[in-house]
């Protein structure tokens, strides 16, 4: 699968039965539609702000950033902001194929999800993502 940002081939990384497409060049991450849900289920967390359905029904974000094409269907993706302090601009396939996160955006959002702001859950999910994405090092 080609990266929607730099157009280079992404690699598939798998951990605990969750496969993510990762770009070793720009460090972006593609979550297929069901993978984000599976991640939250695996970590026993509520989906919260990262539900694909809620992102697709939210208003389009205004951004000077060029619209990117979905790596699955090649249609232009919707720009959407999620989270707060700061809002994070992500790309969502309007057909529901998945979500694109630029480098660092997943980490920014993890710290904002209410169900993981306290306790060990935040550490577990950050550790999980660190293990998933260690392939680029």
Radius of gyration: 14 Å
What does the main sheet amount to?
6 strands, antiparallel
| Count, helices | 4
Mean pLDDT: 78
Summed up, the domain count is 1
Assembly state (oligomeric): single chain
**Strand line-up across the major sheet:** 1-2-3-6-5-4
What is the distance, rounded to the nearest whole angstrom, between the alpha carbons of the first and last residues? 20 Å
Give the topology string: H per helix, E per strand.
EEEHHEEEHH
Strand content: 15-25%
Considering the chains and any ligands shown, give keywords for the structure.
single chain; 137 residues; alpha+beta; six-stranded antiparallel β-sheet; 4 helices; 26% helix; 20% strand
Summarize the structure.
This protein is α+β, with helices and mostly antiparallel strands. The chain has one domain (11-124).
Report on this model:
A 6-stranded antiparallel β-sheet has the order 1-2-3-6-5-4. It contains 4 helices and 6 strands; from the N terminus they run E-E-E-H-H-E-E-E-H-H. The chain has one domain (11-124). Strand 2 (18-22) and strand 3 form a beta hairpin. With 137 residues, it is of the alpha+beta class. The mean pLDDT is 78. The relative contact order is 0.20.
